[in-house]
């Protein structure tokens, strides 16, 4: 019996979401008396592979096949299925990231196994009932899902579970899967990198701007604050709709739902659709010159003031803090 | 080009969510139902644009009961040629995807569109389930899509950037922001929607793999602590000492 976790990599390195998934899988494994086995696909060096031991994998199965350096949900689902069957895994863990969102449903249909997409907590297993929590209504609520199939698939929301580390290292075993070139039906022809820093869905700190910033030319101070904090930038729908900022920064009910540790909202009113996508943040700071802005009701900390004055001041204060604490 | 667009029905985005019967069911009292935004704004509009450019048909498909007909009519008003409703409550995303796959099997659709997710259950699932059951390629989170003959060039969202892919029809694709701009139905569309065909078909025998046992509302936050702009270092202190974020 085992828990198998697909650890996704890019350019030979595991993603942050992969480490979170391995750590999550190993917690499930130790709670249920199972073994956590990681599966890695594509070109990855030995040191990187065994590093998954630190996050609790007892063993890493490695499919050393360069075709997996590029993503195709069909081929990946086929490969993971073979590993699940070979290891008799009962629980399959994936990341609920952009590729994982495509992979999960394919795997569910292939394995005839129930999937809960975007779990945010450990499963509760009681009297043979397997229940796990995920956010629904784009963050306006949570639902406890019961999976009724023998094999269960969980895809883990980014930033939802603390990553635990030890100094263990995992044994790496080569693993072969049967896939043909035809399984790679989607041909990746190029990648455009958009952000230099942390990608928004994975970010622990997010600085977000709204229409209160008046125009795209004023985003310099938002980026400066984000850089100081090692944060990603985001925006309201109103801002991305008028193309002040790219679409992938749009958070909220019809954009991205995020759960960072800290969300700083600057010049955003706090409409219900916006709040939906960000209220899973652990802490929220609101900077707005209107004391009546609805967002203050959903914030932990607030500054009533002009963003053009407050943001540069905050950046300065943070720089000072980091300079004296490093 | 023969295109199928999967459309779902969700509570209006302004809905205050609540639960009933001891938090075991969603409270749908006074809820306004709308066409799921990404299905309407992105999947359907891009499908219509492709049809306008290349010819063909756009069929919309929905798994739901008769109370969904108004949102289906809205899709017809926006320009879909005909609609199919599979007459079953969508039990979970696997069930929904499997119903659509069984319907679409062998009917020769070149492209099956879904939205990226429903804003109700946020599954991101239905497209992938259809693709696997029909053994078709699946491209998720498409923010642009162009056809040349039977080959599509698609840009899809990945963390921190975009990936350009090529894929041959038939395929399944989920649409996100950027692929098209929302449209508003015009008077002619609304009038003609009333007479466009809406076929009601019986569901296939397919299982569900999950069910929702209970719901919860997010925890309330404590009331906000205000910091004066002139004392901004207090905020830094709070982030360090209280929130322990920095
Ligand atoms: C179907 C639907 C779906 C939607 N989905 C989303 C979604 O996913 N995400 C989303 O964000 N929105 C969404 N919206 C839009 C939402 O309803 C709001 O219109 C939007 O969030 C407002 O953006 P905003 O807060 O940037 O702008 P505004 O509401 O205009 O707020 C600007 C704020 O800036 C403040 N301000 C002005 N000047 C300053 C200054 N100098 N310093 C500090 N503060 C200042 C103002 O007091 C105000 O509170 C959706 C709407 C609909 C109808
Ligand atoms: N009941 C339904 N009928 C038809 N299509 C649906 C239904 N539910 C979801 N979909 C489609 O599948 C997409 C993803 O839904 P979900 O997997 O539930 O997040 C939606 O954007 C729709 O395009």
Explain the overall architecture.
The complex is a heterodimer of chains A (about 325) and B (about 250). Chain A has helices spanning about 15-30, 45-50, 75-85, 100-110, 220-230, 235-240, 270-280, 305-325; strands at about 1-5, 10, 15, 35-40, 60-65, 90-95, 115-120, 125, 130-135, 140-145, 150-155, 170-175, 185-195, 205-210, 230-235, 260-265, 285-290, 300-305. With about 325 residues, chain A is α/β, with parallel strands linked by helices. In chain A, the strands form 4 sheets. In chain A, strands 7-11-6-1-4-5-12 form a 7-stranded parallel beta sheet, sandwiched between helices. A 5-stranded parallel beta sheet of chain A has the order 15-14-16-17-18. In chain A, helix 7 (about 270-280) links the parallel strand 16 and strand 17 (about 285-290). Chain A is elongated. Chain B is built from 6 helices and 15 strands. In chain B, the strands form 3 sheets. Chain B has a 9-stranded mixed beta sheet, with helices on both faces. Chain B has a two-stranded antiparallel ribbon with strand order 2-5. The longest helix of chain B is centred in the N-terminal third of the chain and has 18 residues, at about 35-55. Chains A and B meet through helix 3, helix 4, strand 7, strand 9 and strand 10 of A and helix 1, helix 3, helix 4, strand 9 and strand 10 of B. Strand 10 (about 140-145) of chain A pairs antiparallel with strand 14 of chain B. Bound molecules: flavin-adenine dinucleotide and adenosine monophosphate.
Strand order of the largest sheet of chain A: 7-11-6-1-4-5-12
* Topology pattern of chain A, helix = H, strand = E: EEEHEHEHEHEEEEEEEEHEHEHEEH
Largest sheet of chain B: 9 strands, mixed
Shape of chain A: elongated
Largest interface: A-B, 102 and 86 residues
Total helices of chain A: the number is 8
Number of strands of chain B: 15
Low-confidence runs of chain A: none
Question: What's the count of strands of chain A?
Answer: 18
Element-level helix/strand string of chain B: EEEEEHEHEHEHEEEEHEEEH
Roughly how much helix do the residues of chain A carry, as a percent range? 25-40%
What structural class is derived from the secondary structure elements of chain A?
alpha/beta
């Amino acid at each position: 019996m085992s828990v198998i976790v697909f650890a996704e990599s890019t350019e030979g390195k595991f993603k942050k979401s992969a480490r979170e998934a391995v750590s999550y899988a190993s917690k499930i494994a130790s709670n249920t008396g199972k073994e956590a086995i990681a599966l890695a696909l594509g070109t990855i060096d030995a040191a990187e592979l065994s590093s998954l031991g630190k996050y609790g994998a007892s063993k890493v199965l490695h499919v050393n096949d360069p075709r997996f350096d590029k993503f195709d949900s069909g081929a990946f689902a086929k490969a993971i299925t073979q590993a699940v069957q070979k290891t008799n895994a009962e629980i399959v863990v994936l990341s609920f990231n952009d590729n994982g969102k495509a992979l999960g449903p394919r795997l569910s249909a292939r394995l005839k196994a129930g999937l809960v997409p975007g779990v945010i907590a450990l499963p509760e297993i009681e009297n043979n009932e397997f229940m796990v929590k995920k956010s629904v209504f784009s963050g306006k609520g949570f639902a406890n899902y019961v999976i009724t199939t023998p094999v269960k698939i969980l895809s883990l929301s980014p930033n939802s579970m603390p990553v635990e580390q030890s100094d263990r290292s995992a044994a790496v075993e080569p693993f072969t899967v049967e896939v043909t070139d035809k399984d790679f039906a989607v041909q990746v022809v190029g990648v455009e990198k958009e952000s230099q820093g942390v990608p928004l869905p994975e970010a622990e700190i997010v600085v977000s701007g709204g229409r209160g910033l008046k125009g795209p030319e004023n985003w310099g101070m938002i980026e400066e604050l984000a850089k100081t904090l090692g944060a990603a930038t985001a925006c309201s729908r109103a801002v991305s709709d008028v193309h002040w900022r790219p679409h992938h920064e749009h958070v909220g009910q019809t954009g991205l739902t995020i759960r960072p540790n800290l969300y700083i909202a600057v010049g955003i009113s706090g409409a219900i659709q916006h709040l939906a996508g960000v209220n899973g943040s652990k802490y929220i700071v609101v900077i707005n010159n209107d004391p009546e802005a609805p967002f203050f009701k959903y914030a932990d900390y607030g500054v009533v003031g002009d963003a053009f004055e407050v943001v540069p001041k905050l950046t300065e204060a943070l720089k000072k803090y980091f300079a004296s604490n490093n | 080009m023969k295109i199928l667009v999967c459309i779902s029905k969700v509570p209006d985005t302004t809905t205050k969510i609540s639960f009933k019967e001891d938090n075991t069911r969603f409270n749908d009292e006074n809820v306004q139902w709308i066409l799921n935004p990404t299905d309407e704004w992105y999947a359907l509009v891009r499908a219509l644009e492709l049809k306008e450019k290349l010819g063909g048909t756009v069929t919309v498909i929905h798994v739901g009961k008769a109370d969904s007909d108004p949102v289906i009519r809205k899709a017809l008003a926006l320009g879909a040629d005909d609609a199919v409703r599979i007459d079953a409550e969508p039990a979970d995303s696997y069930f929904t995807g499997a119903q659509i796959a069984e319907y679409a099997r062998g009917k020769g659709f070149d492209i099956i569109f879904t939205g990226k997710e429903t804003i109700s259950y946020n599954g991101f699932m239905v497209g992938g389930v259809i693709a696997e059951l029909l053994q078709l390629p699946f491209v998720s989170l498409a923010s642009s899509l162009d056809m040349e003959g039977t080959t599509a060039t698609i840009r899809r969202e990945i963390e921190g950037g975009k990936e350009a892919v090529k894929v041959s029809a038939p395929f399944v694709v989920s649409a996100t922001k950027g692929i098209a701009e929302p449209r508003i139905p015009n008077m002619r569309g609304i009038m003609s929607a009333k007479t466009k065909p809406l076929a009601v078909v019986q569901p296939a025998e397919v299982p569900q793999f999950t069910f929702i046992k209970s719901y919860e509302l997010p925890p309330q936050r404590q009331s906000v602590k205000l910091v004066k702009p002139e004392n901004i270092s207090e905020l830094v202190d709070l982030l360090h000492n209280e929130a322990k974020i920095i």
